[in-house]
Design goal:
With 110 residues, this protein is mostly helical. 36% of the residues lie in helices and 7% in strands. The protein contains four helices and two strands, in the order H-E-H-H-E-H.
């Protein structure tokens, strides 16, 4: 979304608007067979915090081109998303740069 971290939001309405704008871009990609891979980083939070409608997200994922692969990252996301997925993995943090003082970087972390 390009707005930084949202779990300590000061303006939920603005965050929802940003999520919806970003989702429109993702939704177009999910409908375009020229994309072989779509990465939806931290999408699970948008569902969990109700920034996006879960049914809308699941429908777009279900109706994407058959050969298109999608990677969704983030914790949680709900059982419906997990049920739909072909593969579900849990990543265990061993070390994280944030704990060493490395701030989130645009284009890498958001």
């Amino acid at each position: 979304m390009g707005t930084g971290f949202t779990w300590n939001t000061q303006d939920r309405t603005s965050d929802i608007e940003a999520a919806e704008r970003t989702w429109k871009v993702a939704e177009r990609m999910l409908g375009d067979p020229s994309y072989n891979l779509v990465l939806l980083d931290e999408l699970t939070y948008m569902i969990a915090y109700k920034y996006l409608n879960e049914e809308t997200v699941l429908a777009a994922l279900a109706n994407r081109p058959i050969e298109q692969s999608v990677i969704v990252t983030g914790r949680g996301g709900g059982s419906a998303l997990q049920e739909m997925a072909d593969t579900v993995s849990e990543v265990k943090e061993i070390k994280h740069g944030y704990k060493a003082g490395i701030k989130a970087r645009q284009g890498v972390d958001y």
